[in-house]
From TrEMBL:
Residues in TonB-dependent receptor-like beta-barrel domain copies: 238-669
PANTHER family in alphabetical order: HEMOGLOBIN AND HEMOGLOBIN-HAPTOGLOBIN-BINDING PROTEIN 1-RELATED, TONB-DEPENDENT OUTER MEMBRANE RECEPTOR
Taxonomy, superkingdom: Bacteria
Alphabetic keyword roster: Cell outer membrane, Membrane, Receptor, Signal, TonB box, Transmembrane, Transmembrane beta strand, Transport
Membrane topology (UniProt): Multi-pass membrane protein
Any GO BP: siderophore transmembrane transport
GO molecular function: siderophore uptake transmembrane transporter activity
InterPro entries with a match to the protein in the record: Beta-barrel_TonB, Beta-barrel_TonB_sf, Plug_dom, Plug_dom_sf, TonB-dep_rcpt-like
Identification of the protein by name: TonB-dependent receptor
Family stated for the protein in its record: Belongs to the TonB-dependent receptor family. Hemoglobin/haptoglobin binding protein subfamily.
N-terminal signal peptide: 1-24
Amino acid sequence: MIPRLFYPLCFTFILLTKSSSVLSAEKSKSIFDMTLSELLNVEVITATKAPSSLKTVPATVYALSSKEIRQRGYHSLEDFLKDLPGIDFVDMQGTFPLIWAPRGSYGDENKRTLLLIDGVVENNILEGNVLGGPQYSLHNVDRIEFLWGPASALYGANALSGVINIITRKGRNINGSELEILSGSYNTQAVKFLAGQQTDNIEYSIAGSVYQTDGPVFKERNPAYSASYVDNAYSVTGRLSYKALNLGYHRYDRPMGYGQFFNSANEVFGLPLFGFANSEGQAIDNSLSPTEINGQPGTLWHSVTETAFVEWTQSVEQLNFKEKLYYRNSEIADDSYSYTLIDGDWAFIPFTHFSELAGVKFEVDYQISSSEQLILGLQYEIRNVETGYRRRETVQNTPLVFAISGERESTDYKNASSFGQYRFRPVAFQNTSITLGARYDDNNVYGSTFNPRLGLVYAEDSITIKTLMASAYRAPNSFDLFTETTVRIANPNLKPEKSNNFEFSFGYQATDDIFLESILYYNRLTDMIVSNVPIGDIDNDGAVETQNQNFGKADLYGVEFRNRFSIGQSAKLFFNLTIQEADSKQSQQQSPTETRVPNTAKYKSNLGIDWRLDESSSLYIAARYVGARSTAATNPRVEVNDYFVSDIAWNYSFSDRNNTSFNLKINNIFNNRYFDPAVRSADGLTFPTQYEYPGINVLLSFRLDF
């Protein structure tokens, strides 16, 4: 249940915001009131760090406003991502809970994509990945932008395959309070609030959310399956501005189950085997309990991230200065645990890690002229990163119970970087813009990297042509570098993974209501970190040791067709088709192998329609088709079948209060049963071969503004 104290807390903030005089809130246009040309020229910032037209930025970018988020019934980051083209997904209904791979770059468990919230990186510090979930509520989002392809020339480490940029709502866009209550399938409940104002030189916003669900029940795994629960995940966000000074704080806290990440040991419960050839669910050591043990959930994965920053901005004629000091920490909280099968009995195994960082960033934006812009920046960051999960000791033998025992062991990372970007339009070619950029990062642990960028964009009334070239990198994390097992030894000499990308796109606005775009891309990944490479019997104990090494390569290439249509002010449509190839090679010394990148589909398409029924209500219908997907070499399934799924959202706004609304969201409206290929070994033993999606499910939300 949602904590009772959360409701009076929401109403307290609402009353406080009503007691002061406010300026009128800034209003943004509805998608239905915008022409296709206006939608194509929406300003975005992710691709260049400065406001630029979507049509002319040197990258492939998609942007969605707060109004579209509400109309489409998006509640979480995962809702937004699943309607984007060219991305492969693995949804395990727990732990991550969604793994995504833009343009075939699978294999990293969300380590090659950067998540930004108001310009500050949100990725987990130790592992470098994005642990999503319902704590990232979208009720406080002014705009989300997604950039496909490398962006390390601007953002540094881990901006290898894409960037997700969340821009939160400012006080001037709120000027009042909002309260949202959500209820739905699987005993899902959520409460969200938002308040903000701007008065003279002071502006503030504060937002929060609490979300809980029992989660879907995958009965094949266990009739009492309960591993996809979320136990009061919450978010707190605050922003305060006074003249040129901005203060920010946010915390995202998510206690949830492992979901389908590990296999269920059905044999232990006297249940039949399931899955591939009815061979999964054996009593294999390291399987996790899918249901309660000793009155506790079988697993708890409690991820927490916390950020605070101070930002100063100043403009002097054509110069804009920005300086930001920030502090972050991320952890798997020390109440996390799993009931793990060891020698036929359920062992209680706790786990935790904590890492933190502090940094400073300075940027200057020089608008040389109407056709020239120069951005320069310096950044310095210090990280204290735990080297892995903390050590444990046995405190009880029957049943086996462990407790955290070891002292926290950590490594200090120091990273200094400088970057620059020069954009200009040649005098003789005013329809052409050229972007030159580069970033240099020097790290005391894994060395230095240099990542250049070139973008050529030609844009006139009906035609847009983009040619883009860039490199990027993923930094090896402490797990990659230092974590050891009984047979794996550390490799502190790992290098960053590298990406070299080429992209060409042609966009044509055939009429005022039709825009057609074709994108060709090629991405070469090198020095990919391959886990557990055999290196021989190093210590002469008769066992072959392994090590993480830079032995992987991949060639990712494809074509995307992105089409947008407008039917007056009644409807907006999109249709996307992606055809891709993703081939990998592991150049191990004695046995090089070439395979298709696992968990990727050659064909994907998606369709969506935003349809205004009348002045008060709208309908959003989305459908996606995903072709058959490849699997890991250790997965006994050669491939996982294709699927088609469709969702629908109905939004009703009261005519006298534009921001007061109902939203009904139905996912998987045809109740299709479909699967994603599983991660890691996916051998059907410790790890399942595939993950099942939930059937039809419903969410109803009521939103009231004050």
